[in-house]
Here is the input.
Amino acid sequence: MRIVIVGAGVAGCVMARRLSRLDGVEVVCLERVARDDHSEAGTGLNVGPNAVKAVKAVDPELVDRITEASYLWHNWRISLTDGTVLFDLPLADVADGPGWRIRWSELYRVLREAAGDKVFYGCEITGIGRAASDPSKTSVTWIEDGKTRRLDDIDLLIAADGRYSAVRRTISGEPEVQQTGVAIFRLLVPDTAGGLIDDYEQWFNGPNRLLSFKVPPGHIYVAGTFPISPEAPIAESLKTPDALRAAYTPPDAEPSAQARWLIDTVCANAADTHWARMQEHTLLYRAEDCNVLYLGDAAHGMVPTLGQGATQALEDAANASALITQRYRDGVRDVAGWLADIEALRQQRMRFVMAFSLEATDTMRDGADPVAGTRHKTEAAFQNSLKALYRDVGLPLDGRRT
Ligand SMILES: Cc1cc2nc3c(=O)[nH]c(=O)nc-3n(C[C@H](O)[C@H](O)[C@H](O)COP(=O)(O)OP(=O)(O)OC[C@H]3O[C@@H](n4cnc5c(N)ncnc54)[C@H](O)[C@@H]3O)c2cc1C
Here is the structure.
């Protein structure tokens, strides 16, 4: 059996590592960038406790390797930029364990090392199509080291090529994108905060929100959001140090020591910020009429409000690799059946995660009241949804380790 994975990011590396352990399965993972090129991963990530739980169920050694490169995420606090605390939640109240705080480039390094020699770097995909012999199978053509290469009769093609997935566009068409009307910037800076910033925290000034936490080694990740028109690109005038200072400085009070450090740091590094508009795209786990599986952002680009992008890529990969492993070891070779089962396992869960992430964006939209909105997050309904988010991670394991 031949399995090709496109993309050695979060989901792709886990799939390559897990599926390469199956006897009789040829696994090839094609990655566009060079082995040590993390230029598209220059920020920090908070990875939810649900990803830790899901990966631990199938691959505790991988969890240990990621934990070594991380700080644990134990607490979530929300304040106003004047220092008023609105929400202070130990994750132990809603989750079965901590999450991770990690540099994105470190997560890639650990996962790519763990995926080993199944990953081929510097591969530029030039063609994806249905195999001539059997339309349920696919073929892929790429250029590597200046040479054109091709694999035919691919039994399972896994698209783990991220938010702008070329595989998904080619096989299943352009996903529909929905803007939420919130601009977001991200920044990773050396830790000069003198202990002011550590675990995961957020600070509001009206609907404008800062978020920050410390990541090893010696860096602080800062993200900021503010409402914009959903239809328009982010105006350059909103990205200047003066505009950013005005966005986060409380109008009638001094900023807290934390907020002051964050505002000064953002303004001093305004030229290095990475900007995006918060958006999501339609959910799709498998192609209609051939054996192509979409995982991670290729399946579900979502708003980053609850830090579930990489988290769900890990949860997807843990679940999909566990299911495929079990079916394969049980002698089931019906790939279309595997994909239908993965979709059944993941679709409802992802609808919940995407809807909850959008719901939690309420305090960041134009005209929002962050005080009332954040207090609502201390109530049972929101906390129960958090429990479902962090605990109900699926996994068709029947107690068996794969
Ligand atoms: C600035 C920023 C901050 C974020 N913060 C968080 C956070 O705090 N918590 C969180 O959970 N998520 C966060 N996310 C989201 C998270 O990074 C993504 O959801 C996650 O990386 C998706 O994993 P993936 O495996 O689907 O794709 P990716 O990790 O994006 O991997 C895709 C891989 O495919 C490769 N690729 C793409 N096209 C091709 C091609 N044609 N051929 C071959 N290879 C290709 C890419 O080079 C890449 O290696 C953040 C995202 C951004 C941009």
Notes: The chain has one domain: 2-177+279-391.
